[in-house]
Amino acid sequence: MKIIQTSGAPKAIGPYSQAIEAGNFIFVSGQIPIDPATGELVNGDIKKQLRRVLDNIEAVLMAAGCTLKNIVKVTVFVVDLKSFSEINEVYGEYFNEHRPARSFVEVSALPKGSQIEIEVIAVKDVNK
């Protein structure tokens, strides 16, 4: 196993890694909308927070030699399922032709008061 770490995404806020590479798989820890430059939660609506989360995920994947197209599974955690259509709107900007499997779960709260958290699993060599 190999730890994946980049300054392009926020540092872990607990005892975990940004991602772990195990074989051809990259397991990206849940990302919340923290700006890696400031270490602060991005304020704003769910669309703004989601863009920051997906940009953070993309930075972690790039550090592992991957892109968003390597993602095979996405798990989305939100504090309000009523934001489903807004999330899908922005999500579709990042995942238009490539559509990984996805779960969408409402939770009672997320770290730092975030509205959204996303974790992903990617495959390093999609041709195997």
From TrEMBL:
GO terms assigned for molecular function: deaminase activity
GO CC field: cytosol
Superkingdom of origin: Bacteria
Family according to the record: Belongs to the RutC family.
Protein name as annotated: Putative endoribonuclease L-PSP
Organism: Pseudothermotoga lettingae (strain ATCC BAA-301 / DSM 14385 / NBRC 107922 / TMO) (Thermotoga lettingae)
